[in-house]
Amino acid sequence: MKKGIRILVWIAGIVAVLLLIGAFLPGSATISRSTLIKTSTPVVYGVISDLTTYDAWMTWNQVDTAMKKEFGPVTKGKGAWYTWSSENWKVGKGKLEITDVVPDKSVTTDLVFGSSDEPTRAKWDLTDSAAGTKITWTLNADLGHNPLSRWFGLFFDKMMGPDFEKGLAQLKQKIESGELKLQEPKMTLEEINTPAFQALSILDTAAVMSEIGPVLQKAYGEMGQLIQQSQLQISGAPLAWYFTEGAPFVLEAAIPVNKAPATTTGRIKWKSIPAGKAVVVHYYGPYEETQLAYKKIQEWLKANNKKARGASYDVYMDDPMSKKSMYEVRTDIIQPVE
């Protein structure tokens, strides 16, 4: 009996010592791995800043092929995010968001696992060289004050390093083989005559690009309720005017309708748009790259000695949820001209 008690005391003492030592171990852990990809930095940056490519090379995204993902309103660049959920305990659920980018230089993401409020930060740094692009993938984990977590930190690199190496190897192979590449939006331009139309509209602002989607959805929802209550008919695709080129964005969301309502409510207004000449770019690609379409319009105006008449507007011809890729989603950018 006394021997058993002594053993328990010894075990308790060892645990106490380990916990005490753990309290003084580093409160964070870092993993870093690098590889050289034989291509230019814009190509590598274009892939790692696009969340839709992550399934092809991110090791943890391949553990459970039945994992469910939901993307935010933008999928590329700062503010892009997706959530995931899986019944596989090794995957669980969480959220990944691109929190900062330096074009052709770096991409920073925050990972939140489960119900945790503390993000784990990862960063990809790109360095150009004559041989290609050196990419360094670094992850910093805050281990908190838990001594057990701090002991775990000692083995962090050995446990997770192989996943980093496998991910970088897949990224390298798929970029160099051309399987993953910098995808370009498709655009065609034509002159058109726009018919007159009337629409309900809401003027609003978005502090950053990632807020534009939620702002538009809220506005369209409010107008949808009025359309239903007033028994109006939607006569065209939803659209939006943008009155500023950068953040904060001043925008006016609108839905074409067959007639004016008897009365409007809240911040909803009614407006009539006259017929006229215009130039349109049929744009297929992510919303965050529509500036390419605006640039194409400006080049056309200059080359054809034309003047813009009022603000241009975006017409959302496709529902992104109905397409496999944002590069299949059509947006018509229309600029009225004199």
Q: How would you describe the overall organization of this protein?
A:
By secondary structure, the protein is an alpha+beta fold. The chain has two domains: 25-176, 2-Layer Sandwich (Alpha-D-Glucose-1,6-Bisphosphate, Chain A, domain 4); 186-336, Regulatory factor, effector binding domain (Multidrug-efflux Transporter 1 Regulator Bmrr, Chain A, Alpha-Beta Barrel). It contains six helices and 15 strands. It has an eight-stranded antiparallel β-sheet with strand order 8-13-15-14-10-11-9-12, covered by helices on one side. Strands 1-7-6-5-4-3-2 form a seven-stranded antiparallel β-sheet, covered by helices on one side.
List the helices and strands and how they pair.
Layout: H1 2-23, E1 28-37, H2 41-48, E2 68-71, E3 81-85, E4 93-102, E5 106-113, E6 120-129, E7 132-142, H3 147-153, H4 156-176, E8 186-194, E9 197-206, H5 212-229, E10 239-242, E11 249-257, E12 269-273, E13 276-284, H6 291-303, E14 313-316, E15 330-336
Antiparallel strand pairs: 1-7, 2-3, 3-4, 4-5, 5-6, 6-7, 8-13, 9-11, 9-12, 10-11, 10-14, 13-15, 14-15
Helix pairs in contact: 1-3
Full CATH superfamily name of the largest domain: START domain
How many strands, which pairing sense, and closed or not: the largest β-sheet?
8 strands, antiparallel
CATH class of the largest domain: Alpha Beta
Distance between termini?
A: 100 Å
Total tally of structural domains? 2
Portion of residues in beta strands equals 25-35%
Indicate the overall shape: globular
Instruction: Give the strand line-up of the largest sheet.
Output: 8-13-15-14-10-11-9-12
Strand elements, count: 15
- Helix and strand run: HEHEEEEEEHHEEHEEEEHEE
The class by helix and strand makeup works out as alpha+beta
**What are the low-pLDDT stretches, counting only 5+ consecutive residues below 50?**
12-26
Mean pLDDT: 85
The total count of helices amounts to: 6
Helix content: 25-40%
Q: What gyration radius follows from the Cα positions, in whole Å? A: 26 Å
